[in-house]
């Protein structure tokens, strides 16, 4: 099995770290390792995605338990009572799989999570699709995960840290509080990886109150950016009259908003970042020249790269319109640039995603039919999965990367591109609507809804690499410094500090409950 991007973490935690001294339980929808049946037997693969890539080294280093949906068709076959030790080549922690009925997956994951919460949080209210079966399934899934977490901590550490990830589990902390098997001194924390929208957007949901009360079951709640934190606190202030919000301190006192919430929820902001040392392993991976050969690209032409899921939030159609406009208005780029678009299908069970993916393919075909020649295809669309080594080679081969998100919690692809090219060349074109634009300095920023402006930014980025190498290098150096300051190790350390602060605050109040550090 090829080495994962997360297998050699470079960051460390202090000896007094709560994460080192207490049992850690991570909860996510996606599992870090998937077992699948093949013609040769059972194979195991590491899951793609920034969340699993970021958290796998944490559990490798600290040990603990990762609770996740068992999505592989051979997951149950290799598990002992639902649990398997991972990574397979060097077991370091327990992966506890939660098996869900197909109907629950359909309504909880493809339904409420990705047909309601995803468009709601990304400001695309017109794409919300709600069926009567979605919300009850979301509740059932959160209940099922609560049972699994309690089963995993019973009889163990008297003050475990439960770290819940993302929007699939807005109700989970509250459900955990109602379980008698959860130790009283447990710390329950959650990180919300997608944007938190304005109060007016949240109130569109008929379950807004339940979502907020569920999240306030956490001792600690994290967001990527201060803007998301402000939006959340404002939402609680406006939609939960019984809650008391201290916006400056980021403290919500939630007595009276439900039967099982803790007294206080501490809300903080810190972007996740990437494992910089892993991306910089690019020098030891396959050569960029292999990319040109395998994807039938001419190395004499400029290469414009896009890497994302086929997801409407990623602004792929907007970028294609801008690329077409560039070819229309700047004929010098015809037969001089290729847009390589690595974008595989996702969430195909959701009708809105199927429609969007079909339209993207039609758009690519139309651009190629209009401008393509016998020896030049303007847009090459790769839908097959790309492994980490190949992705690093793509990053290094590209003259520019375009991130055109209509809305994005952060965007780790932009950070990976910068880290892979540190000390080399490459220009980043970045949507100002992606959270990463708040922390990365040196990108050429775009509004993806501005077709002409995005086309001009692509023109500028490609021209920099050809005509103004000094400015391109300065931009990349500035971006590299931004990425170094916000690596995944600092994200983990910031969580560690927040857990420590909970214990300090609890001790000052004489509270022996949530958040107390046993060491």
Automatic annotation (TrEMBL):
Q: What is this protein called?
A: Trehalose-6-phosphate synthase
InterPro entries for the chain: Glyco_trans_20
Any Pfam family hit: Glyco_transf_20
* Species the sequence originates in: Natronobacterium lacisalsi AJ5
Gene Ontology biological process: trehalose biosynthetic process
Record-level Gene Ontology MF annotations: alpha,alpha-trehalose-phosphate synthase (UDP-forming) activity
């Amino acid at each position: 099995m090829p080495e994962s991007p997360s297998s050699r973490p470079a960051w460390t935690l202090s000896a007094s770290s709560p994460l080192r001294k207490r049992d850690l339980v991570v909860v996510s929808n996606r599992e870090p390792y998937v077992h699948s049946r093949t013609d040769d037997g059972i194979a195991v693969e590491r899951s793609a995605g920034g969340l699993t890539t970021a958290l796998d080294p944490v559990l490798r280093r600290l040990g603990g338990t990762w609770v996740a949906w068992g999505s592989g068709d051979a997951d149950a076959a290799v598990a002992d009572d639902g649990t398997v030790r991972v990574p397979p080549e060097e077991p370091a922690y327990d992966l506890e799989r939660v098996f869900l009925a197909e109907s629950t997956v359909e309504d909880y994951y493809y339904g409420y999570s990705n047909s309601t919460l995803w468009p709601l949080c990304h400001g695309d209210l017109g794409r919300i699709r709600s069926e009567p079966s979605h919300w009850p399934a979301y509740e059932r899934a959160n209940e099922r995960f609560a049972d699994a977490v309690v089963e995993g901590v019973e009889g163990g550490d008297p003050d475990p840290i439960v770290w819940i990830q993302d929007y699939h589990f807005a109700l989970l902390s509250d459900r955990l509080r109602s379980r008698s098997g959860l130790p009283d001194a447990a710390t329950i924390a959650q990180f919300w990886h997608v944007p938190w929208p304005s109060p007016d957007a949240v109130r569109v949901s008929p379950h807004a109150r339940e979502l907020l009360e569920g999240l306030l079951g956490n001792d600690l709640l994290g967001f990527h950016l201060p803007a998301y934190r402000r939006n959340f606190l404002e939402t609680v202030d406006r939609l939960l009259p019984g809650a008391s919000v201290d916006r400056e301190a980021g403290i919500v006192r939630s007595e009276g908003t439900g039967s099982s919430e803790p007294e206080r929820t501490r809300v903080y902001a810190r972007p996740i970042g990437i494992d910089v040392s892993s991306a910089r392993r690019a020098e030891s991976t396959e050569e960029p020249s292999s990319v040109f050969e395998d994807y039938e690209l001419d190395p004499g032409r400029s290469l414009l790269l896009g890497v994302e899921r086929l997801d409407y939030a990623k602004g792929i159609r907007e970028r294609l319109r801008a690329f077409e406009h560039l070819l229309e208005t700047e004929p010098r780029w015809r037969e001089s640039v290729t847009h390589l678009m690595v974008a595989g299908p996702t969430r195909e069970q959701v009708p809105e995603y199927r429609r969007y993916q079909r339209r993207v393919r039609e758009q690519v075909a139309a651009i190629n039919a209009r401008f393509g020649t016998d020896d030049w295809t303007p847009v090459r669309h790769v839908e097959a999965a790309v492994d980490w080594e190949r992705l690093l080679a793509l990053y290094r081969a590209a003259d520019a990367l375009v991130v055109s998100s209509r809305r994005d919690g952060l965007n780790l692809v932009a950070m990976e591109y910068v880290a892979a090219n540190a000390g080399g060349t490459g220009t980043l074109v970045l949507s100002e609507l992606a959270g990463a634009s708040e922390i990365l300095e040196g990108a050429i920023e775009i509004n993806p809804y501005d077709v002409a402006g995005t086309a001009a930014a692509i023109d500028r980025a490609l021209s920099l690499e050809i005509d103004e190498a000094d400015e391109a290098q300065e931009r990349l150096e500035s971006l590299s410094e931004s990425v170094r300051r916000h690596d995944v190790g600092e994200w983990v350390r910031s969580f560690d500090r927040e857990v420590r602060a909970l214990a300090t605050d609890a001790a000052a109040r004489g509270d022996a409950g949530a958040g107390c550090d046993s060491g």
